[in-house]
Amino acid sequence: MKKILQRKLLQFGLTIFAITFLVITILPNILPKNEGSSLVFLLCFLILLIIYVLSNYFAEQYTLPIRAMLKDPTHYDQFYDDFLPIIKEYRSSRDHVTHNNLRIAAEQQKLVQLIENMNNGFLLLDSNKNVDLVNKAFLEITNCPLTTKTAYGRSYSDLTDNETLCTLIARCKKITGAANFMIDKRYLHFTISPICIKDNNFYLCLLNDISYLYENEKQRIEFTANVSHELKTPLTSIIGYSQLIHEGIASFDDAKAFCLKIDKEANRMLHLINNIIELSFLDEKTEDDKQTHLLPSLLQTIIDRLEPKIQENNITITLDLQENEIYGNEKQLDEMISNIVSNAIRYNKLNGSLHIHSHCENDHTVLSFQDTGIGVSEEDRKHLFERFYRVDKSRSKETGGTGLGLAIVKHIVHRHNGTIHFESILGEGSTLTVSLPKDILNK
Fold first, then answer.
1. Which residue from 160, 217, 222, 280 has the highest number of Cβ atoms inside 10 Å of its Cβ?
2. Does this model's pTM top 0.85?
3. What is the pLDDT of residues 132-147, one digit of tens each?
4. Radius of gyration for the chain, computed over Cα atoms and rounded to the nearest angstrom
């Protein structure tokens, strides 16, 4: 390669020398004196132009194969053997850099997607506390009209006008800060932490919706109060009647009646405790033994068990079973259907009816219970599945209701990955529909 290059350069140099010699020595003697100098300058310019064009041409010719080898590893020219190791090293380095750049870009995209899809609010501020990165959740929680793109570079005060939030961000310098506050009746927990990334200072802010914690605490307090009240009522009756009997104040007939009331209140308390235990079990995240059961036999067992109540209220029960199988835990399914049917009897009209229908829909067993009862108002429907909630408290206590039946039904349905729907017309009746998935995997 060296010899060829030297020969090419020698030929090029001789050509330039010959042209220059011709211009300097021959042409001035041929041309008139007044025109010679101008023509010499013109020819020199042309010579320089020719040299420039030729040099570019030769450079292009010499480097073209090298560039081709860099782009295409299969392209090979023996004329450039001396450059082959360098080209291989360059190509290896280039591929390594390209691979790393693609990997870094993919990781950055993954991180951006992760932050964007977080349920919690994420905000990254630069050293001037302007927005460097913010996700959609943060903007939605703070009711900010900006988008994640338009918020970039804006001051933190443009994202929210909440005084607690703005004060915490403004005061943060080197120490992590945190606070709880409310926006639109939502309880929020906010933390801000100063961080350093490659000698650049940033502020990492996280905004979490903790309304469920307050709601859980509220429900716990209400549940404790309700349990205390529900247990206190029968215990008060039991203690009062037993004292009358013990002190001999009650006559024989009265004592007999008091014993019946004590028995009734004790059974009511036992029923309440059993329901509380059942709810506690349903709250636990444990796997249940689920199997496919025959719906007709399951319903008939429950109806036979509730026969005294059915006859007492003279309720007519009709079955329309287009689907005969239901999948789930037998004990829980029995508890679910028993509570629904028991409620339909308890809140039904005298000489009323209960129609039970089943069908298959989208690999789900759908059960509907339609009664001709007292119905439920729109306001009561909002709280129907809450613990200890009663539509008609006086009637519920008379018939032994605890206010936990439909709460248990809801827990069982959700435990079976099903859905529950309730419709009612006040004074005309109600329809409760349960949809439970079938055992598709074993079919």
1. 160
2. no
3. 889 998 988 888 888 8
4. 44
